[in-house]
Design brief:
699 residues; alpha/beta; OB fold (Dihydrolipoamide Acetyltransferase, E2P); Rossmann fold; 7-stranded parallel beta sheet; 6-stranded parallel beta sheet; 18% strand; binds adenosine-5'-diphosphate; binds magnesium ion
Length: 699
């Protein structure tokens, strides 16, 4: 047996000081091998080379000082807080905590030497630091060795990690020796020619410098080198995914639009916007190409994506092939089905609807007619890609609201045809960086124009105190023939409690506040028939007010709805709020979105909502969301195919993403020379990652 130095092949348990217990805890944060550990990156650094003395601190500056604890204790002014006073040769500095008091109290003892970082604030003319970053400085020998570097890494940690000796110092104690022993043997998958041309730091050097940088300029280079590698490998996966599909020729040929098609377009109840026209032209161009289309159609809520998709579906059906549209929820599938049925009325095609609740006999009939090719247009949910669904000649798959589907689901649908074209629609305007990563394998078409006559929705942020006014306003709206949504947040974790809250609110509205108006309730846990009935009544305007959990979030189209009231608005992401706001303002009537929150006006949540109130642009909101809550929130679910990067920052690394993509493309098309060995290494990496992705593992 040979002994491996490659940290990717060495389990963390081989490290001194890592026993089974610690290994288990580390596994919980995704660290199993020494390589994983070496990619556990510092959250920030302590710059010992730039220590300041307490007497000379300036208000408002970020500083690091070292001092001994001379006093500590719990104090109470308007609020409880914990104070520690440290001292150096020049003076005293109070440190204040308002949260996590128990932990602070337990951890720090009088006489300890602390290294403290934070922003100096002015407290009645004296300096203090609130919630500083604190490191205990120990004098033992081992620590001294690790600390000889002048810039010291501070690692992220959690309560669980801390209680298992994996605080920042604990991490330093295992990472530093791991770097020394294995750092030189980290394997670089990026070919030498790329490293040279892109001017990257050698990988082992970059990893060392990111932990113990010589200075901050070098650290920036190290980060750049690591982020680039990470993005390049990711873009290779994306390019591979794309090539797997596009290297085949499709089996179908779509007929050019004929007079019948043009007549149908002219018969639509509205004129297409310029932007819609451009999008459909781009889609048609791809439909005529020999290789399958991989298209992402992006457009703000209400921009009219459905009709564009329907045009493509219509053309495919007229050419004698099958086409399927998949929606993320039953409700949305039903609505698309109705819309498409209406749009296709008078043509040869009667769309079918297949969802999880389609009765068995009806389902069997639909499956038969799909297998024979008799049914050419079908709309459905996930039910469309169960194993027993077979198509005679599926030529176009349309997926609405992509972020609810995973890559593996997308591929399962595509596998039902012989290289069908793919059209993915998303109403979440995706910042460019995300489009290039999460959807990097798709070509982008954008609808960036609203149908004429739309008036921007007026948004307001209100609190409980405003309820009487809000209710009066709603009554007036309903009495003048308009309709209103009331939205309650519903998150998986506490389904029952919140369901109760929504139901209770519904009863209040129905019995106490608007006993004279027609009110309906829909939520996700309801029987399909009941929900459908209520939605249908709302749609027919028999109901004036619809109380709902977020099931109406995506897609639902009720032209007369002019007000949407969103309760506990702070519980929603901004993009999600924007989606909800898009449920109104879908006609030429003046519409309103009223956010209700009980957050303090000074709280971060309140500020976040205030920024939303001022912005009607879905793209800007998505960017805000990305900045404030990260990509996971923005895309909705964990299984969104959204990569989690260890170094790269999806919100800010746009130019790096573009460069990496460029290199990935050159590698895929072999316009960049690499050795056979390098090629094989990359190939096996891609294969391994792909297997993980398709088996539903993390990407
Ligand atoms: P989304 O892009 O959010 O899916 P929809 O496709 O549901 O938007 O369209 C929103 C509404 O706008 C629908 O009622 C649709 O019939 C209408 N619509 C679509 N295109 C136009 C247009 N060019 N002019 C006027 N109304 C349009
Ligand atoms: Mg839609």
């Amino acid at each position: 047996m040979t002994y491996s130095h490659n940290p990717a092949e060495v389990a963390v348990t081989y490290l001194k000081g890592v026993g089974p217990k610690k290994a288990e805890i580390l596994k919980g944060v995704g660290i199993e091998t020494v390589e994983d550990l070496l990619y556990y990156l510092p959250r920030r650094y302590l710059d010992r080379s730039n220590l300041q003395s307490i007497a000379t601190l300036q208000f408002g500056t970020e500083v690091t000082v070292v001092g001994k604890i001379v006093m500590q204790g719990l104090l109470r002014a308007r609020k409880k807080f914990y104070e520690i006073v440290i001292q150096d040769d020049s003076g005293h500095l109070p440190l204040l905590w308002f949260n996590g008091i128990k932990y602070i109290e337990k951890r720090f003892k009088r006489g300890m030497t602390l290294s403290v970082s934070g922003t100096v604030s002015d407290f009645r003319g004296g300096a203090r630091i609130i919630h500083p970053e604190v490191e205990v400085i120990f004098e033992d020998e081992e620590e001294a060795k690790i600390h000889t570097g002048r810039i010291i890494p501070i690692y992220p940690s959690t309560e669980l990690l801390k209680s298992n000796w994996l605080d920042s110092r604990g991490f330093r104690r295992i990472i530093k020796p791991a770097l020394d022993q294995y750092g030189d043997y980290i394997e670089d998958l990026v070919p030498a020619s790329v490293v040279a041309e892109a001017g990257l730091m050698p990988l082992p050097e970059a990893v060392k410098q990111i932990h113990y940088p010589d200075n901050f300029e070098i650290r920036a280079q190290a980060r750049h080198s690591l982020a680039f590698r990470e993005l390049l490998l990711f873009q290779l996966l994306v390019a591979d995914r794309r090539q797997r599909i596009t290297h085949k020729h499709k089996a179908h040929t779509i007929a050019k639009p004929d007079q019948g098609f043009h007549d149908w377009v002219h018969g639509l109840p509205f004129k297409l916007t310029k932007s819609q026209g451009k999008a459909i032209a781009e889609i048609l161009e791809d439909l005529y190409k020999p290789e399958p289309m991989l298209k992402l159609l992006q457009g703000d809520v209400g921009s009219g994506k459905t009709v564009v998709a329907t045009m493509a579906m219509m053309l495919v059906a007229r050419s004698g092939f099958q086409t399927a549209m998949m929606a993320p929820t039953e409700l949305l599938a039903q609505q698309h089905f109705q819309t498409i049925t209406k749009l296709l009325a008078g043509t040869n095609d009667n769309p079918a609807l297949l969802t999880g609740t389609t009765p068995a006999r009806e389902r069997a009939a639909i499956l038969r007619s799909l297998a024979t090719g008799e049914t050419r247009v079908i709309v459905g949910t996930h039910a469309l890609f169960t194993d027993d669904v077979t198509f005679a000649n599926l030529a176009l798959a349309v997926v609405d609201e992509q972020h609810r589907f995973g890559v593996s689901q997308r591929e399962a649908l595509l596998a039902k045809g012989n290289s069908p074209d793919l059209l993915v629609m998303t109403a979440t305007p995706i910042p460019r960086t995300l489009a290039l990563t999460a959807y990097g394998d798709l070509d982008l078409s954008i609808i960036d124009e609203m149908p004429v006559g739309r008036i921007p929705v007026r948004t307001a942020l209100r609190t409980d105190a405003d309820r009487p006014k809000i209710y009066k306003f709603i009554r007036d709206e309903v009495n003048s023939g308009n309709q209103v949504f009331f939205i309650y947040p519903l998150v998986e974790e506490s389904l029952k409690v919140q369901l109760k809250a929504a139901t209770k609110a519904y009863q209040d509205l129905a019995e106490v506040i608007f006993p004279d108006l027609q009110i309906g309730l829909v939520h996700g846990q309801m029987k399909k028939e009941e929900r459908e009935q209520t939605m249908a009544r709302f749609s027919k305007r028999e109901i004036g007010i619809l109380v709902s959990t977020t099931v109406v979030e995506v897609g639902i189209d009720i032209p007369d709805a002019t007000v949407i009231v969103i309760e506990h608005a702070e519980r929603f992401g901004l993009s999600q709020l924007h989606q909800l706001r898009g449920r109104v303002g879908r006609s030429n009537k003046k519409s309103y979105c009223i956010l209700i929150t009980d957050m303090e006006p000074s709280s971060e949540s309140f500020l976040r909502l205030s920024r939303f109130v001022e912005c009607n642009d879905g793209f800007k909101i998505a960017e805000l969301d990305l900045e404030l809550r990260g990509p996971g929130e923005l895309l909705g679910t964990k299984q969104s195919g959204m990569p989690e990067f260890r170094v790269a920052n999806i919100a800010s690394d746009l130019s790096l993403i573009l460069t990496a993509r460029d290199y990935a493309h050159r590698l895929m098309t072999s316009t960049l020379a690499i050795s056979e060995q390098e090629r094989l290494k990359l190939k096996s990496y891609i294969k391994q990652r792909r297997e993980r992705e398709l088996s539903g593992g993390v990407s």
